[in-house]
Amino acid sequence: MTTVEVEQGKLKGARIGDSETDYVAFKGIPYARPPLGILRFKAPEPPQDWEGVRDATAHGPVCPQYNDRLQRLEAGSEDCLYLNVYSKTLAPPQPLPVMVWIHERAFQLGKLLGLETEDPQALSTFLKNAPVSDLVNIKLPPIETKHKDLTDSILFGPVVENAETDVDHFITKPPPELVRSGCFAKVPIILGFTSGEGMELGKHFPANLNLLLNTGAVVPRELKLTLTEQQLRHADIEIRKYYFKEKPLTADMLQEVVNLETDRLFVYNIIRFARYHSYFTSSPVYMYKFTAETERNYVKKFYKMDSISGCCHADDLYYLFNVTCQDVPLTSNSQQIIDNFVQMWCNFAANGNPSNANAVWKPFTDSQRNFLIIDREVECVSNVDDENIKFWENLYNEADLEAR
C-alpha cells in the first residue's frame, strides 16, 4: 500500500504504470472545505481533518459545468475542491519541481437568473440559493448592450471590486491598468497562442452575421469603453478595411472572421502583456505560436473547421496531455511534436529555461520579439505576425491605451 501523511491525516494512493514509466498517484485530496450552502462564492476555508487512512485512489467529483462543445450539462457536484498529485517517487533526495494545471470555466450572471437588484447582499443570498444547474446553464438570453459584439456572449468574468469593503479582494482596478502600471508577479512565464484561436468564436459564424454587421461589433471592448462615438466608428471602419480587405462582410468569409478574432481577442493582448512583462521585470518571458495540425487537432475537427487554416483554440492541449475522455489518435505525425512540447514545459518547471536539444528558445523582449514556432519541427524566429500587431498597436495608441 502506498501511504503518505499530510496535515489533515493519512492518504492511501496507488502505484500506476509499468517498471519504466510507473508513478504514484493520490487522487481526490481535499484542498478546502466543500463550498456548500453559506460557503458558496466565499474564499476557500481549510479542509477538515479526517480519521484513519483516507482512500485517495479515485478522483473527486468534478465541478458542475456546461459542456459548450457537446451542448449539455455535465454531471458534477459543488463539493469539488479536490486535487490529484502524481510523482515518480515518494521520497526524492531533494524537492521536485511541481506543475499545477488550473482549468478554466464559465459562470453566469444573477440578472439572467431572474433577479433584478443592485443590493449586493440580496444578490449574494439569491446566488447562494440558486440551483447549481441554473448557474452553469448557458442557454439563457444574452445581455443587451449598446454596441454588441461576440464577447457579449462570454457569460461571466472577473469584475473590479470595491477596495473599501471589508472583504477579501482580488481585483480592485481594471486589469489593463494594473498591467500597464507593472502590478503583476515578476516571475518567469511562458505565454503563447495557437495560429487559429478565433475558431472558438468563428464556430458561431455565419449564424451571427447580422451581429457582426453592427457598428462597433469588431472593436475590442477595451476600446469601446474609451472611444467617443466618432472614434468608435473610425476604428470599426479601419478594422473592417484591414481584415475584410475593404469588402462587405458576407457569409462566405469565415476565414477572415477567424483571422480577426484570433488577433482581436487573443494574439494582440497576449503579446501586449509580454511587452509589459519584459519592461517591468528582468524575469524572462518565453513566447510561442503553436501551428501544428495533425490528427490530434480534435477541437478543430469537432467544429468542422477543416477548410480553415490554423490550429484551433485549445487544440495545443491535446499535445500536452494524454487525453483519454475523447478518441484522439496518436501517430508518428504527432509523437515528435508531443515529445518536444512536453519536454520544454518540464524543462521550464525544473530550471526556468524551456530550451531543449532541438531548439534554443530565446526570451521575448520589446526590442527582440522572439517566438518559438511549435510544429513538427520547432524553430525560434522573430516578429511573428508583426504587421497585424502593428495595426493593433496603432489603434490602441490612438486611444492612448499604450502607455509604454
UniProtKB/TrEMBL annotation:
Residue stretches making up the Carboxylesterase type B domain: 105-392
Keyword DNA-binding part of the UniProt annotation: no
InterPro entries: AB_hydrolase_fold, CarbesteraseB, Type-B_Carboxylest/Lipase
Entry keyword set: Glycoprotein
Originating species: Danaus plexippus plexippus
Domain of life: Eukaryota
Protein name: Carboxylesterase CXE26
Pfam family, one: COesterase
